[in-house]
Specification:
single chain, about 65% helix, 7 strands, 27 helices, two-stranded antiparallel sheet
């Protein structure tokens, strides 16, 4: 206990800034409830990109389906997962431990995980650099101002505008929130094992490395390549004892992954796997990928990173060589991953950290050599300047995002009465048909499933026929005639929605734009749409076990649900009407 208290005292600024970062992250959500206390009805502020996808998954765990085989569809609950569930399980059970409802569970993670993430990054950088200012600056920049390292981020900020209007997304639940913690948590523990050779850190490293399989593909693939490079370095140096020690870490991690690979085997055997797997954006190709960030930071590392501590240099060398391999693994596998995920969540963070380390190290050398500067603490001035800019950037992004999105969030509050009714009068796992905006909310706040929901194409239940039926039904409700389908499906906006709905990231990655989906696919789909119109609508809905229909009369007047005699109205308030299917 005394060691912990002393550690907190020694690094008090780190704990203070960790708290500040957590507060900046969570403040918009808390302030919204105060700022709009009259209008707020309990619908969570989901402002970061694709956040509702992850919120639905957390809610599914809370509903008693932790395998996440099919979080939004009724069918496929027992299917193998394609996206690992550990992050969602951690968040859902964290809420249970503290007896929190759904909203407060997410609020807790938006403060707690940035707080812990800041300290983990701080600890890793401090152990590597042995400098508190370097560690403090790196952590602050990485979490609050990483957007400045984009091509136009700094320029936009200098023009007095915000680099982003979707909130600070480095700790978006669940990803990259959990990825961040596991990635830097492993680097911290593995460095302690690498440097101090204490087995408690080796065991923790092994556990984190194995569990990373259940977090994120881009996390474990990067870390395994990194560890492989460390082993290669020791092999070239013929340090067999080091190879043996690290080999035990790898072996232990592989034991942890056994259930993961059993699930993967079951996934591959599933009849829908061949249709669903391309939606993750894995395409054929062998062209090399470098970008500009990775080569630049590697050159800076070779030229300016200190070489005095050999272990640190080799560890860092392996870490900065890893991006070259993961970005170009397709040269061997012929399968290109979504390289942006490596860029945002591993390569860019490491580039920021090593840039700050090199900057502070070289600044320290300059101060030692120039006598005129010895009376001025340039490192402190530099740290204050960079940290100040980072805080300003983070607050600017949060403020601009709040102003940009508060009207939309206020609009979402209109769904609260619908959620209340559904929770009161429906049974668990029944199916609701609603427009796509309401459908992203229902799975988070009820135990119901939806006919269509956020990113449903990522699950094995989402066969091509199932996703085609979703496209057909909504066009049918919009009043699209059979003879009009050909022209409508060839329109740019419809092409994009069909490409995304049926093929996910595939055509975006393959051709650079979803609108480039081949015409023959769209024409064939138009013919199938005409055939689907021959099926009576009530039978079409029953095929997919639809029990309730929610109609937003204001935003979707073309649906005209009152015309269908097989729908019995059971609720009406304002612009909404709920029907039960006979």
């Amino acid at each position: 206990m005394e060691k912990i208290i002393q550690s907190v005292k020694n690094h008090k600024w780190a704990f203070l800034f960790a708290f500040l970062v957590g507060a900046i992250m969570v403040f918009p959500q808390i302030y919204f409830q105060y700022d709009h206390s009259q209008e707020y009805q309990g619908i969570y502020i989901s402002g970061t990109d694709n956040e509702s996808f992850y919120l639905n998954r957390v809610a599914e765990v809370r509903d008693g389906h932790p395998s996440l085989g099919s979080p939004i569809f009724k069918e496929g609950k027992d299917n193998p997962y394609l996206q690992p569930p550990l992050g969602e399980i951690i968040i859902a059970y964290l809420g249970r431990i503290f007896f929190l409802d759904f909203n407060n569970t997410i609020l807790l993670t938006k403060f707690l995980f940035p707080f812990l993430g800041f300290l983990i990054v701080y600890g890793f950088v401090f152990l590597i650099s042995k400098e508190k200012l370097t560690a403090l600056t790196s952590s602050t920049v990485l979490i609050l101002a990483n957007s400045l390292f984009s091509r136009h981020g700094l320029l936009v900020l200098l023009q007095g505008e915000s680099p982003a209007t979707a909130f600070l997304n480095f700790f978006r639940p669940v990803q990259p929130q959990m990825n961040f913690l596991f990635f830097f948590g492993f680097l911290l523990c593995f460095w302690l094992f690498f440097e101090k050779k204490q087995w408690r850190w080796g065991i923790i490293s092994s556990l984190i490395l194995g569990l990373s399989f259940y977090i994120y593909l881009y996390t474990w693939s990067f870390l395994y390549v990194f560890v492989g490079l460390i082993l290669l370095i020791f092999l070239l140096k013929r340090q067999w004892s080091e190879i043996r020690r690290i080999g035990y870490v790898v072996l232990g991690s592989l034991l942890v992954t056994i259930p993961y690979f059993l699930n993967l085997y079951r996934s591959i055997l599933h009849p829908n796997f061949s249709e669903v797997s391309p939606r993750f954006g894995l395409i054929d190709g062998r062209q090399p990928i470098l970008g500009f960030l990775v080569p630049i930071i590697f050159i800076l590392f070779v030229l300016f990173f200190p070489k005095k501590r050999q272990n640190r240099y080799l560890f860092s060398l392996a870490l900065l060589l890893t991006p070259f391999i993961v970005l170009n693994q397709q040269l061997i596998t012929n399968r290109i991953f979504e390289t942006g995920h490596y860029h945002w969540y591993t390569n860019q963070p490491l580039a920021i950290i090593f840039f700050i380390i090199i900057l502070f190290y070289q600044t320290g050398i300059i101060q030692e050599r120039w006598r005129v500067l010895k009376t001025i603490n340039i490192l402190k001035i530099l740290a204050v300047l960079i940290i100040g800019i980072s805080l300003y950037t983070g607050i600017t992004i949060q403020t601009a995002s709040y102003k940009e999105q508060q009207d939309g969030i206020l609009q979402d509050q209109k769904y609260a009465p619908i959620i209340k009714w559904l929770n009161a009068y429906t049974q668990k796992d029944e199916v609701v048909l609603a427009d796509w905006i309401l459908a992203r909310v229902i799975p988070s706040y009820t135990s119901l499933n939806v006919f269509d929901g956020t990113s449903g194409y990522y699950y094995l239940a989402a066969s091509r026929q199932r996703m085609s039926d979703i496209i057909f039904l909504f066009h049918r409700l919009d009043g699209l005639k059979g003879e009009e389908a050909k022209n409508r499906f060839l329109e740019a906006e419809t092409r994009v929605s069909i490409s995304r709905g049926l093929y996910g990231e595939y055509y975006k990655e393959k051709f650079g734009d979803e609108v480039k989906i081949p015409d023959e696919i769209l024409l064939d789909l138009a013919k199938k749409y005409q055939d689907s119109l021959l099926i009576p609508l009530d039978k079409f809905l029953k095929i997919h076990d639809v029990k309730y229909v929610v109609w937003d009369k204001k935003d979707y007047p073309q649906w005209q649900m009152d015309q269908y005699k097989f729908l019995d109205p059971v609720y009406e308030e304002g612009n909404f009407k709920i029907y039960i299917l006979q």
